[in-house]
Structure formats: C-alpha cells, structure tokens
Amino acid sequence: MGGILNHFVRRHSFALAIVLGFQLFATAVKADSFNEWVSWQRQKAADYLIPNLSPDGTAPGTVVAATSKSDPDYWFHWIRDAGIVVQAAILEFEGTQNSDHKKHLAKFLLDFVDLSRRNQLSNTLSGMGEPKFHVNGDPFNGPWGRPQNDGPALRAIALVQLADVWIKAGKMDWVKTRLYDGKIPTHTTLKADLEFVAYHWQETCFDLWEEVKGKHVYSRMAMRRALLDGAWLADRLDDSGAAAFYRKQAGNIERELEWHWAADKGTLIPTIDRDGGLDYKHAGIDASVVISALHGATPDGKFGVTDDKMLSTFERVLEANRTIYGVNKGNAPGVAIGRYPEDQYNGGEPGFPGGEGNPWFLLTTGYAEFLYRSAAEFEKKGSFSINSINERFFKWLGIDSGSSVSQLAAAMRSRGDSFLARVKFHGGDDGRLPEQFNRHSGFRQGAKDLTWSNAAFITAIDARR
Asked: Are 195 and 163 in contact, with CB atoms under 8 Å apart?
C-alpha cells in the first residue's frame, strides 16, 4: 500500500508541477543559471562516464553500458554503445584539463583497441556482428537479437577519429600497427571493421534497440559514414584501392537509403524488409532515425541535420512524442523524447513486453544536439529554403521565408536549449543521467549511470559550443 500511495503522490505532484511550475521554469531557461547548469552537467557527465571505462573487475578497454547489474543488468560491453561512447571519450581526452582524466583516457583508448581486436577474433555466435560481451572480454552466448551490424561501423567511426588524434600527435606507427595496416587479410582493428562493413552492409540485422531484424536507417547511416571516414583515412595512408572500394559501397548504401522515404507520411521509415524480431511496430516513427543524422553525419550532408527529409522526420517524431507521454502535457519546455510510439520497454526487467515505454535522456539530449548542429550547418551554408517536405519543421520553429539565416539559427539554438532544459528538469541534483524518466511522473528510472546518456550530453554540449 505504501508503494501505491507513494506512486499516487509522485504522479499527482508532478501534475501540479506542470500546472504551477513550467511557466517559471521556461523563464529560468533564459537565465545565466541555465548556462551555469550546462557547464556543471557537462562536467558531471564526464565524471560519471570515465569510471565506466575499464572499471575495476573488467578487462582493460571495456566500456560498461551502465553500472546497473540487475533490473536491468547492463554490466556488459556492448559494441554499439562502446563505439558511441569512445567518440565522446576522445572529445574529453582532447579537451580536458584534468590530468587524472587525461591519463586514464590515454590508457583506456589503447586498451580499447586491443580489446576490440580480441572481440573481433573471438568465436561468437554471429561473427563480427556479435552485439555484446561479458566484462571479462568473453562472448555472451545467451539468447539475443543478433547480428547487430551497426556495432563494427560505429567502432570504425570512433577508431578513425582516434587515428586522426594519433597522427596529429606524431604516432603514425601506432596507426599502422594497431588500427590500419592496409593488408588483406588484416591484422588491425579498424581495417577489419571497415572490411566487414564493406562486405556485409546489404544483410539484414537487428536494429539499435535490439528488437527488429531488417534493414534500418540507423545501421545504414552508421555504415555509410564508417566507409566514407575509412576512405578518407585509407587515402591518407596511401591505400587508394581500398579507399575507392569503400566509397563505392558508401554510394550503394546512399541509394538504398532512399527506399526508406515515405512521402505520404513525411518521414524516413526506420526499418524496411523486416525478417525477424518484434512485429508490432507499425507507426513507422522512431527517434533512431533522427539520431542517425548525428552518428552518421558526413561532410556531404546526405540525410544529415539540414536534409529536408531528415528535418521532416524530426518534426513527425517530435509530434508523436508530444501526444503519447503524460509529461509532455502542459506548457513544458522542450519535448521529452522516447524511442517509438509502440514501445513496451520500461527500463527494467521484468516488464517487457507488456510494459510502457518512457522518454530517454539520451534521445531528448540528442534532439538538442541535432538543432545545435543544424544551426551551425545553415549558418555555414548562408541560406535555407522552405518547401513542401520541410515546411512543418520550419513552422514549428516559427520561421518563414522572410526570416534570415541568423534568425533561423537563433530559433534552433533556443529550441535546442529547451530540450536540455527538459533534461535538467527530470535530472537530479547529483547530475546522474540514467536511461529513462517515467512517462507519467517524470522521475528517473531504468539503468542508472547509463554511459551512453553521459556520452550524449558531452557531444551535445560540444555541438552547442
């Protein structure tokens, strides 16, 4: 009974906050204290992320998905999460003034390369597409959605960034002996990932939510970027034949991505050619498509943060989230963003299927990052145009054909801050960012200290700066 009463008080207290508090909160977003919170939370994100890199009791180079070991158990090294997190770790390594952080990150990045090679060579159930490993480095062989072929692509993206850091530091020998040797068969981690992606991108696999098997926008965007980034590095290392092959395959992926566009719905469909996994996701609405524009971003801007089809998808996903979550009712800053309308995963085990999905911290933060990046891209272009595909997005921003680029950028940054303001409201005084917050009460739940949540905040603030 106490638990039921507590839930009632929490739920109705939050409703009262919606009625009485959001007006004041929206005003507070504009105050200097908000910028102070951004800086504080950015540091907290690093403080909570770094201990999850090679924590005690794990193989060196391990990225634990979260500190949570039950309800749910995320004490594993996921290839996807690690690829995303390492990109944030590299940003922190390059920018931190904390000598302890710098030292820890330098060793971790070396260890991550070695552990990744060990993962690649392990005898797993799905080869290079194996999604996760135990923290001691051994494969997880239990029932799971496999393969997940976005993992090697995301790891490759991170390792190209690491190669650039090492080259600038005069460590070309490290790049050639540990990352990219230019040989077939290869003995290096990055080259192995690129070869895998180049030869396996056509295959169906499980999506980043580990629920549906098919061909996914997110996976394809990650694979396309990995190949283009890899081609850039291959050229730099005088492996022009490989560079040309990678670019050719990236071009093939780009053409396939066009098949995901549903003009009648104004959105990129997250999955086509489904051949396994959950079968109840019919809305064709998924925030994974929006964050694919972040994780799969390339200099040519294809399906990026200024692409008309991606802007339209951003708005359609936004509107779907606005209506399905109780916390989005009322005059709230920003919009709490979850995965997709039919979501049944509530952040714990048991509870799936048959539960209620919730907004995620990393997705709400991702919406902010999208807008920050988009503002910078439009400023760089110096112009924008409104058409039948993107008009709803610009209407949401309050921008019309008579607006200037500077007005557009200002509107985007203001809206981006509103999504961070939502993160601030549902976060806590301790700065910890778990996986989710409850769709009714707004209180934090799911895996605590989710490493990806902290990484998402770091990359968002990097884009904001």
From this structure: no
Q: Which residues of the chain have pLDDT under 50?
A: 1-31
Long-range CB contacts for residues 411-416, cutoff 8 Å, separation at least 24: 412/371, 412/372, 412/374, 412/375, 412/378, 413/371, 413/372, 413/375, 413/464, 415/334, 415/371, 416/367, 416/368, 416/369, 416/370, 416/371, 416/372, 416/375, 416/464
Candidates 195, 207, 307, 417; catalytic one: 207
Whether the full predicted model's pTM is greater than 0.90, yes or no, is: yes
Q: What is the pLDDT of residues 45-71, one digit of tens each?
A: 999 999 999 999 999 999 999 999 998
pLDDT in tens, 284-335: 999 999 999 999 999 999 999 999 999 999 999 999 999 999 999 877 678 9
Whole-angstrom Cα distance, residue 334 to residue 425? Answer: 11
- The dihedral built from the CA positions of residue 215, 219, 221 and 227, taken in this order, carries a sign that is negative
Q: Is 207 one of the annotated active-site residues of the chain?
A: yes
**pLDDT at 446 (0 to 100):** 92
Residue 207: predicted pLDDT:
98
Distance CA 150, CA 207 (A): 8
Q: Is the dihedral of CA 340, 412, 259, 452 positive or negative?
A: negative
- Give me the catalytic one of 195, 210, 211, 377: 210
